[in-house]
Amino acid sequence: MRLLKLVPDNTNIGFVKLRWIAFTLTGLLTVASVALLGIRGLNLGVDFVGGLMVETEFQKPVSLDELRRDVDRLGVGESSLQQFGQTNVVSIRLPLPESTDEGATNQVVKKVQGALEAKYPGVQFRRTDTVSGKVSGELIRTGVTAVVLSIIGIALFSWFRFEWQFGFSTAVAIIHDVLVTMGFFALTQIEFDLSIVAAVLTIVGYSINDKIVIDDRIRENLRKYRQMDMRALVDLSVNETLPRTVMTSLTLLLALGSLLLFGGDVIRGFTAAMMLGILVGTYSSIYVSSSLLISLGVTAKSFAPKTAATGAERVTKRENNEGAVP
Q1: Which pLDDT score is estimated for 313?
Q2: What gap in Å lies between CA 224 and CA 226, rounded to an integer?
Q3: Which helix (H) or strand (E) holds 224?
Q4: Which of 34, 114, 152, 196 is buried most, with the most CB atoms less than 10 Å from its CB?
């Protein structure tokens, strides 16, 4: 049986020649994402803003304005409504009662549920979440800290594993991946909760894995082809790792596509973030982080020691005697 090859062995795509177009697109996407975050902001879930959230499913689509008036008449605070996935599924957010007693919160929930059951027969209450303001503030700080520290740690790892140029290019690409993902949520106003933070951290991990594979191949080829032009060497390295990149991304997208279709509304935001992150991360690995090394002036001579020290990694006595590999 012949093996399935999504990418032929002799593939030779000129990725580097498109690097300035890719850099321009990357810059535009990053600026647009930051602008969306500043103008529209994220639709933060109860995890981050605190309060009470009741997710309801009606027998048929309802008017949000009318539903808001019905809830506000109950005197439990100003409500905020959002359709959740389907037109008959609505998320109702309410402030927490002044009393921190759990019984007071349960009374608010029962009051809302009773009023909705009376006016909308057949309504179902899918879930109820409650988060205090203190806890939500801590979750925001820990979530932001986790993402920032992960990017810094990855940049330092690439720096010490390879050279500072690799660490810088990897950090730039990962920051782009994270910002574009956040911009997507600002644009679509999909609820941003702790599961999305987990998705962002997973995207960071996936992106660094893909970029480290390409960086390792570039460094290997820098030692192997010392006289090759850097643009040709980057193209060679990316094409050599392309089968692995395509197969990994495709299998993940197939699995996530199934979750998006059949996983339900609870994990829809997480799945959407993961799918977008994989697409953006694959793009940045191929067109951004690897090509950025050329702009940073990386060549085979950049890492060759000035003196051929014993046991040096890139220059050995045998290589000096035999000459460079063409």
Answers
A1: 44
A2: 6
A3: helix 194-224
A4: 196
pTM of the predicted model as reported, rounded to 2 decimal places: 0.69
Nearest to 199 by CA among 140, 278, 145, 253: 278
* 53: helix, strand or coil: strand
Which residues, at least 6 apart from 82, have a Cβ–Cβ distance to it below 8 Å? Answer: 43, 90, 91, 93, 189, 191
Confidence of residue 45 (pLDDT cuts 50, 70, 90): confident
3-state class (DSSP) for residue 303: coil
CA 69 to CA 60: how far, in whole Å? 18
The alpha carbon of residue 102 and the mean position of all alpha carbons in its chain are separated, in whole angstroms, by 36
pLDDT at 295 > cutoff 50: yes
Which pairing describes strands 51-57 and 80-84: parallel, antiparallel, or unpaired? Answer: unpaired
Q: What's phi and psi for 114, nearest 5 deg?
A: -65, -40
Q: Residue 315: its pLDDT value, please?
A: 41
95: region left, alpha or beta (phi > 0 left; psi from -120 to 50 alpha) = beta
HSE-CB for 299 with a 13 A CA cutoff? 6
Residues 125, 317: Cα–Cα separation, whole Å: 74
Cα-trace Rg, the chain:
26
Task: Identify the pLDDT of residue 139.
Answer: 67
What's the pLDDT at 319?
42
Distance, in Å, from the CA atom of 183 to the CA atom of 200, rounded to the nearest integer, reads 12
Spatial CA neighbour of 218 closest among 157, 303, 277? 303
Q: pLDDT per residue over 167-215, tens digit each?
A: 788 888 888 888 998 898 889 888 787 778 888 888 887 888 888 888 8
Longest dimension (CA), the chain: 90
Whether residue 135 has pLDDT greater than 70 = no
Question: From CA 58, how far away is CA 92, in angstroms rounded?
Answer: 13
